[in-house]
Structure formats: structure tokens, C-alpha cells
Amino acid sequence: MPRHKFDPISQKAYYELFAFFNSVDSPAMDGNAKDHPPVLRVPSDEDQLLLADLRARINAIEAQLDAPDPEVDSAQREWRATTADAWTNGWRILEPVAAESANGATLTILDDASILSTGENPDRDTYEITATTDRTNLRMLRLEALTHADLPHTGPGRAENANFVLSEIEAEIASVANPSESKSIRFVAAAADHEQMNGPYPVSAAIDGVVDNTNGWAIEGFNRRENRTAVLVSDEPFGFEGGSTIKVRLRFETHFPAHVIGRACLAVSADPTLFETIAPSGVGPWHVAGPFTADNAQATYDTAFGPEADPLRRLVAIDPDARFGADGAIAWTERTDLIDGTINKFEGDYTANYIARIIHAPTPRKLTLHLGSDDAIKVWLNGRLVHENYVARAVALDQDTVEIDLRQGENVLAMKIANFTGGFGFAFRTSGDSAGKELLRHIDLVLAQDDSLDDDERTRLRRYFRANHSPRMRELTEEFADTSAEITKTESALPTTLVMKELDEPRMTHVLFRGEYDQPRDEVSPRTPDCLPAMDSSYPDNRLGLALWLTESDHPLTARVMVNRLWQQVFGMGLVKTAEDFGTQGERSVHPELLDWLSIEFVRSGWNMKHLMRLMLSSATYRQSSRVTPKLLERDPDNRLLARGPRHRLDAEIIRDQALAASGLFVEKLGGPSVRPYQPEGLWKAVAYPDSNTRIFMAGEGDEHYRRSMYTYWKRTSPPPNMAAFDAPNRETCTVRRANTTTPLQALVLLNDPQFVEYARATAQRAWVDRLSEPMRSTSDAPRATNRGFERLVPNAENATETDAALSRAFRLLLVRHPTDHELNVLRNLYADQLNRYRADPAAADKLIAVGMSPPDLDLDPIELAAMTNVCATIMSLDETVTKN
Amino acid sequence: MDPLWESRLNQTRRQFFSKAAAGIGVAALSNLLTQPARAGGLNTPPRLLKPHFAPKAKRVIYLFQSGAPAQHDLFDHKPLMRERFDEDLPESIRMGQRLTTMTSGQARFPVAPTRYKFNRHGDSGQEISELLPNIANIADDICIVRSMHTEAINHDPGITFIQTGHQQPGRPSMGSWITYGLGSENRDLPGFVVLISQGSAQRPSQALFSRLWGTGFLPSEHQGVAFRDVGDPVLYLSNPDGVDRASRRKMLDALARLNISQLERTGDPEVNARIAAAELAYRMQMSVPDLTDLQNEPEETFHLYGQDAKKPGTFAANCLLARRLAERGTRFIQLYHRGWDQHGDLPRDLPLQCQDVDRASAALVTDLKRRGMLDDTLVVWGGEFGRTIYCQGALSMENYGRDHHPRCFSIWMAGGGIKGGITHGSTDDYGYNVTMNPVHVHDLNATILHCLGVDHERLTYRHQGRDFRLTDVHGRVVRDILA
């Protein structure tokens, strides 16, 4: 391919170099996260000690948790045997006599009594499975969703991604002897070994009586293609004497197409041990009675309205026939739209609503409630007040935690939410009753023969038993969890740094036709350009190899480019003017031998930047006077031939840092998070997205205003204006050479930016305080050689006053030299003028010296301070102050 | 010496000899003024000492509507679409146009005809929707271009493209090119001013970026200066509390004296530039408040623009400010009104946006006209691309949304050498493709430069070995719309 005259390297070579950077393991979008991976955490020494200690502790606990313990181990064996026995014998598999699909799927009854769905795969379906059983006193139904070779990705769902969403499971039972004797089986609790977490998909959704197009039991089939088990508990025992016919309906009615179970197996159980071990508690739907209104907050909270009014039967039942309120218009209303784990809203000021639900507990047990309310809340269990909180607040999840003791069977949980004014609502969720679910998750391990388990599985089983069934070990497990949480908390507070990381499998790179990302052509591998020395074949073909190649001592570019940049920093312009471009379109070096010599010296010193800086700064070239004559200017306007010392305006950050340093406010601290010194209002808001977290600028506190400018937080779409005014680039692209302009906005910054006004005032304070130690005598006997009326460089000691000393001090703080007599005179006159002005208007003086976060020095006379502040501001704005010369 | 340059120096000379600058030694002053200043500073003369040919417009007011206004509901009347409500967009119309990820997942692309009525307005009979009644009243003054097109399909590249001529950032904005080329007529105010207003639409608006008024590789002094609506319009304009104008003057006198002695010591003419900059800052402290102080504006003005014009930061206030800037010789005035990105709930949000801008846009044109300024002021109104005829999201008779559409959009222009009362270019029945007289964003930019008397192919800047220009290597002046 012919070379384009502007590109010193071919297109292929470009992509070969690009290939080095094309195998980076990180997503294309960073999600606006501060610490998007890959990231390295960088702990301090203290952090490392703390973490080491925590990790040692957790290792010790873990060892204990996993160590053999004769007592616990023997208990485990016993428990295992009992539980496995109860499970194996306690479940009676239902052998279907019929299996019908409502919408045309083919349901086949397999030899193991499971039902396989094949053929037509309708978007929605209902399976009706009929079986008989001779058992009575049945309490639980088990539904297994099983994999099968014929299902997508082996299932267990028939959706493309192997998932399913079971909207509802319903069951009826009829007596074989007397078929007209039948009833529905009402399920009040459910547990499953896995539930999908990213939506309304817990197993309880399959028994909540709500069949709509979104909720139901789903199992994350797109990630986990395994057998799934759910256990459902009925409110009463079922099973007729003389045999029963059971019809079970599995309804799949969500809008997710074909999200049906592919292979199902049902079983029932009457076993009391199994029941006690597995059956979870279950919550019924909420019922609401209200609204009840009062005149004020206290009354709303205190008054025992409607359901609370009856002293004997207060909130012990949810009676659908009960009527409350002045005209008996209020009754308990079932509200299936109130959803746990979310914020539910009501309306009405000074209004209270009662909400209640039944909780079924197969055995007595504890349950933890996590509540939120706006505003106040009272909670009763079976008529007894178990919690109250008289508070005005906005509702959020998990504001109050209440542990309750459920009795066996039906419990009535009632709450009163009392609103004062404004928002009104509640949030509710439970935790702590997961024994059934945990057992289901580990049942395979429990059932397996001990010698068939591998080490991992044995460990899992042991940990499960110890965490759930051994009181002593449970304590240890909790300690493990707490320590683990502390480690996580400490680690997440560690400072991070963003890094690059290679993919395990290198990504293929292609030449892109005309650079268009969707037009890949030939494959290329990482390779350095031919116009530079070849990369050593022993180096790896990745960024490490590239880094090694770049830092070879004889690499023609790296040292020269670096040296040139440092030269640019010191002298204002590089030996190669186009510091960002050493290619054919860049400028050739003005002093090639010097560049070469410095580059070799740089490498020889071990790439030591300080050494190079010292070399340049101590050179005769640098120490030349930057004075320029018209002839010199005509001959060499940009000082390329270096016949004079450098003279160029300082960078934006340096101008501010210098003023900070002179003021004495400078905080030298290194490192830490970015800071936000003062910035005028509304700049970020004008450009930001409405939901951006950098839309409203909030200034930092304390030290944040006085740190080195490089720590200032940088919003690239609206950079700090006082930096931008002095040509600081916005950092959207890499800028090696800054512009160097002179604009009125710069003058405005130096004189009017509150930051600089504060620095001027602090410098004035410092100058006053230190004035008595300001040397006002000539330190050398002879005046400096003068020329054409240049003034003596040391003020005349005889006429010096304290004011002069302060002025001189201020001048020296900023310009690092004594003022000439002429300069001192100008400053004196300005000071005198300002003194008069502020004497005539002392209030103005007070205002001026109050500008800024730091308080003015109260020992100083405000009028003198204000006058001196303006003098200092003038000195700060001098060309000489903002220019290096 | 170059006459333009000389006259500029004379201004500075006058300043220094005025009463305000009493006390500076004459000798020092002549020293000051005979040194040539270096390039890149305040004293750089404009690139073109005079325009390439006689300009019609001396200045531009660009009313940029950020987010992409929906042309089917505003300027491009497609009555046949009413019959096609909810029909799928035919492949013969779409012809493989790439979609954004916001609608590429849609199963259907049903036609969403506009809910709004169009009527013909003025003697010219221009078709404008009922959402813009005031702009409809100035129909005879404006040229509507319906055949605008671009390649960009998302906001950042789209707005960067139409403002800088390239979808990727790094190039100078139009305002920078123009002030670089032509300078400004008022030395006491920035030549390129930016005014931003937030839209009333309820949907969150797209962000802006300060590089949109940046200079790219051109000298930084051509940066746009964004006025703020709270506090000082120009940042750091006001003296701090406790420093009055007289004190400031004394300080600047001292500053000048000290700087001059620095000049004598070092001989560096850059010092001149810094002295001049400080003096200009001082003048801006008068000129900017004079600009933004609406006390001398008669109440009638607010009848014309609406009472919103009294509230800083509104589009109406910015339009009024634009007229005042124009009067004072500012070369390029860039407004941005945010919030036009009606992906959904268009019937809720589009009327709100239109209420923000309709009256003031028309008022600006009317106001310029009656002051005799419309002929030499070019007003441009439009966004970065168009919107789709097909619905984004759920379609109903009452509600719809539109996704981004690069293949055609509408803008209008008035004054400054553009023919009023015409509609240029047309699109197909779906308002999807341009059928006649396409105007690419490069063509628009070439035309704007042409109105200013600048040949877009000859205003260039060498950078990275190449001569860059606003229109890159494209652009044709649209002669049919020139007056």
C-alpha cells in the first residue's frame, strides 16, 4: 500500500502498533464508576497491617470451622442419617395418570413419573397433571423442575435460554370414594433452592394468588441449567381416607415467551420430621383498613381507631365482615398491589392506615422484620404490641428491625402507619427464616453417600451443617461473617488506581478499511514500526514487550522525546519545537547534537529526570539574562538559538501555586482525593446532564482550597475557569504543548478571582507581620553596575520606614528580589492612595479583607491591611510575576 | 505599518493619553507603542485584513436548538402520514439507514404522524406548525431549509459536526473560525459570545461541552466566552467587595508603571500585550454591565420578547442580549437552548420547548429588522439533526416519541444575505429522505461563511502539515437561498 505523504508509517504498521493495546481486559463503557475494573487497590502501611491481622483472624476461624471436631462431627453424621432418611422416605412421588397441556404442547409421562414437555412450544401454557395417592395428612407438595437432553441447553425451562417463570401453582383434591367431595389445596408458604433475584421472581410469587404477565417463580435459567426443587406448604393437611385424586395445575402466563417448565416431577409428604425441618413460614397478602383521620400528629398516632379499638380482640384477626369508621364504611380490603421489598404509598395528611397479614408458621420460630414508614409506625403480633416508633421521616427500606416470635400455625401481624403531613407509605420485608431453603440447596449433598463426595462437597456439607445445625459452630460462623464483612469494608475504603490488564486470550486485531470500525480487513499481530529498530524477539508480544522495547538504551526516540519535553518545560520551547511530533510533519531539531548529547546523558544516568533538570538549570545557557534587545528580537524572535535566557509566561497551575506559596496559605500535603477550591456558580449546571453527579458544584472545606493546583478536581466539559483562562488544556485530549496567550480574562482572574484576592490579602498579612525582619540595608557595599539610568537594586536604607519594609517584603515574596527605588516609590504611592481611600470608607476595608475562606488577621488594622491587599494584588498581576525570566 | 494594526495601536494610545491614565511618562509610552508585538497575543490582527468579497452579513446570531427539534411537528408538513398512522415504515423508504440502539430493538417502526396542524403563513405561504405561531408571523422574513442532512446520529458527534465540521472533537468552532478570520468590531467586548438556556421539557436534556465554543488548534484568544446567567455575566468581571472602580484604576496605573519599567529592563514586547490586556479588562468592566443592564430598554421591548426576557438565563433574555451584542459589534453570538430531545412524550414536551423559543426568536428577527440591522445580521435557527417519522416507544393517537434521524432535518435562516419567504429543498412523503436540493451541514457552513464575505475554501489554517478549514474538504455554497 503506498504511503500517504502525511503519514510516516503505513496503515498496516499503524494497526500493528495498535495491536499492542487491543487486548486490554476491560469493558468498553466504564459505567461512570470511579473504580471501574481493572483496578489495583493501594493500601497504606497501616491498612496492610490491619488487613493482615483481619485475614489471620479469619483464617484461624476458618480452620476451626473446617477442623474435625468429634462432637460436632458425630452430631452431623446423626443428623445426616435422620434427614436423608426423612427425605427419602418422607416424599411420595406422585405418579401421574394424565398430563394435559392447555395450548398444544405434548406432555409425555416418563418412566420415573416425571413429565416431559415436547413438540409445540406455545408462549403461554397451563399443565394439568392428575395423579392419585392413598396418603392422608399430607402437608407439603414438592415440585422438581428437571433437566433433560431434549430441552434447550438441557433446560429445565423450555425458553430459548432454558429459563421458566411459573406464574402460579394450583391444586385440587377429590375423594376417590366420593368424587364430589373435593376442595382446593391452599398453599401458604414456599421455599426453593434457587430464585432469580432481578425482579418479582421469588418462589412465593407462584402461590400468591396473583397471575399476571410479569411475576412468578423464575430460576435464572440463562446462567444455571440444573435441576430445581420447590417445596410448598398447605394451610391444612390434605388427603381423603380411601384415596384421593390430586390435580395440580402449573400455570405459565407471563409475557416471557415459552418460559415453561420442560420436565416436572411432583411428590407429596405427610412426614412430620420433614415438615418441621423444611417447611418455611409464609406470608399472606396484605389487608388494609383505613383511612382514619385525626386533627394532629399526636392524635393520629395515639388514637386507637377501628381495628385497634376493641380491647379484647384488638388486631388478633382480619375479619372481612368487620366494619369500622363513623358510618361503617371502612372494611379490611385485600391489597395484592402492596409488594414486599418496595416502597408502598398511601395518601392523606394526619391519616392512619392499618395493614395486616397472616403469617403461617409450620413450627414456632423467629422471624426478623425489616420495616420502613412515613411517618410513625406501630406493630402488633397476635394482638400484642411488639414495636413502636413515633417519628417523622420519609420512608426508605429497612429503617426499623424487629424480631418476632411466631407461634405454630396462623399468626396475625398488624401494623399501623400514621402519617403526619406530606409523604405517606411503608416498606416491609422479612429475613431469618431460611432453614428450609438452605436445606433444599444442600439436599443433594445430604443424600449422597459419604464416600461419593469429593473434598469440596464434603466441605460444603460440613459448613452447611455447622452453620445451621450446631449452636457452637453457628457462633463461629457468625464471627466469620462479621470479620469477612470488616475485611470487605476496609478493602473498599482503600485508595485505588486504575490499571490496564491483558486478556487471557489476546484479541485479534485487523486493519480497518479507511479507519471505519465496522470494516475489518487483514489480521495483524503486534509489531513495532519498521522505521524504528526491531523489537527483540525474546520480548513478549504485549505491552510489557513494548515497554521494554521503548526503554532500550539505544531506542532513537524515547530519550530524545523525553529530554525535549523537559527542555520545553525549562526553556519554554523544545529543541524540537513540535514536542508532540517527531515525525516527518514535525519540525527538525534546532540543536541536534545537543539533543543527542542530552539524550545519551539521560540514559546513562539511569533515565534520571532530576539529574537532567539539574543539568539544564545549572547550565550557563539557562542562567543567561533574558533581557532582549531589538536587534536580538529581530534576529531570533523565539530565542531558538538561545542567545538569551528563557522568558515565558508560567503555566496556569504554577501561577496559582506561586500566589498560594507567597500567601503562606499553601498546604503542602501530598496525595489524597481531588479537591474543590472555589469556583463561580452555575458553570457545571450549564453543561451537565440533569442526572449527572457533577451537575452542581460544591466547594470543598478547609485545606481543599489551599492545595497544589494539580489536585483540583477536573470536569472536562467545564474545566476550572481560572485555569482555563491561563491556557490549561481541558484534558479531553493529550496536550503536550500548551497555548500561551495574553487576554483580558487573565487580568480579571488575577484581580477579581476570590482565590487570588484571598492570596493577596494573606500575602499582605504576612508582609506586615514580617516587616521588621525585612533587610533594608545594602548587603554589598558597592551598588550593582548600572546602565542607562537603571536604579540601584537595593533600597536606600536611610529612608526606609516600616511601611517600606512591608512593601519590600511583599514584593520579595512574589518576585524573589528587592524592589528598585522607582518600584518602591510606585508601591508607596499606591499604598498611600489606598490608605486614604479606606480611611474614608472603613466598611469597604472590612469587606475586602473578609474575602476568602481564611479569616483575616485580627491583630492588624483593617484599613492598613486592605490597602496592602490591593498593593499585593497589583504585584501579583505584574507581568514579571506571571512570567519566568 | 498595516493600517488596521496602526489604528488599533492608536486606540491604545488614545486610552493612555486620556484622563483615566494620567501620570504615565510620555517617553515610556512611546517606547511601549513602537515595539512590535508577537503573534498569538491580544494584538494579533485578524487573518483576513478584509473579507474575500463584499459581505452581506457583518455578524451572525446562531440560535442553536440542542437535542434535535422534531421537524415533522414544526417545519416539514407531511399530510399523507395521517393516513399511514401505525403503518410500518417501508423498507423502500428506510433503505438501510442505521438505527440508534434506542430503537434498533423495536419490533416495529410505526409511522407517527404529527398531532399538530400546519398552516400557510404570510404572503409567501410558508408552512409552519401551530406550535410556532410567532415564527409563523415572520414567515416572509425567513428561509426554511427542509433538506438539511448529516451523517451523525448521536448528539455529541452531531453537535460537534455541525459546529466544527468534524464529528470528532479537536477542531475549532464556527465562531472561532469567524473571529479568527474577521476579528470583531468592538474591542471592549469579546468577539465570540456564548449564551446558554435550559429547556422546559420534562425529559432530562442532553449535555453541552465547553469545547463546542473552543478554538481547537486556532490561537486561544478566539475562544468563545460563555456568559453566565447568575452573578457576573463574564466571569470575574466585578471587582471584589470593597474595591471600587477608582481604586481599580489606581491599581492599574501602578501596574502599568511597573510593567513599563519591566519592559525597559527586559525589552520583551509581550509586556505590551499584558498591559493592553489589563486595560481591556478595565474597559470590559464598563462595557459588559452596560450591555447586560436592561434599564434603558423600553417596556415595549418586553412586550415583543415576552416578560421572560427580564429573567437572565432564559432563551428570551439571551435573544435580547444577542441583539444588544449585535448592536455593539460582536461578530458571532452563539445561543444554545437545551432540551429538544423528544424521544418520548413528544406532545407533552415539544409544546413546552416551543413556548420557550417561539416568541423570542420571532422577536429577535423583528427587532433587528426595525432597527435596520436584519440586512447585515445573519440569524440561524436549528439543531444538530432531525427526528424519525416512525415512533419510538408506544404509539397512540395522543402520544408518541421520535428517535434521531440524520437523513433530513429542517432549519431556518433570516437576514444577512439570505432570501426571506422561501422554503428550500424538500423531503419525501415520509419526511425521511431528501428528494430535492440537499443541504449538507458542510453546505450550510459554507453558506454562512459566504454571507460574511468569506470564501470557505480560502479561510484555512495550517496544522499537522495540512490546511484545515471549517468545511474540511467539502461544502458548497447554496446559491439559491442567497438574496
Helix content of chain B: 25-40%
Helix content of chain A: 25-40%
β-strand number of chain A: 31
Query: Helix-strand pattern of chain B, N to C?
Result: HHEHEEHEHHEEHHHHEHEEEEEEEEHEE
What is the approximate shape of chain B? Answer: globular
Q: Give the count of structural domains of chain B.
A: 2
Count of helical regions of chain A? 24
Question: How would you sum up this structure, described in words?
Answer:
The complex is a heterodimer of chains A (885) and B (483). Chain A is α+β, with helices and mostly antiparallel strands. Chain A has 6 domains: 11-35 and 500-549, no CATH class; 43-93 and 450-494, no CATH class; 94-278, Jelly Rolls (Sandwich), CATH 2.60.120; 286-426, Jelly Rolls (Sandwich); 553-635, no CATH class; 751-884, no CATH class. In chain A, β4 (106-109) and β5 form a beta hairpin. Chain A is elongated. By secondary structure, chain B is an alpha/beta fold. Chain B has 2 domains: 1-36 and 245-300, no CATH class; 46-230 and 312-481, 3-Layer(aba) Sandwich (Alkaline Phosphatase, subunit A), CATH 3.40.720. Chain B is built from 12 helices and 17 strands. In chain B, α7 packs antiparallel against α8. Chain B is globular and about 80 Å long. Mean pLDDT of chain B is 88; it is low at 1-43. Chains A and B meet through α14, α16, α17, α18 and α21 of A and α7 and α8 of B.
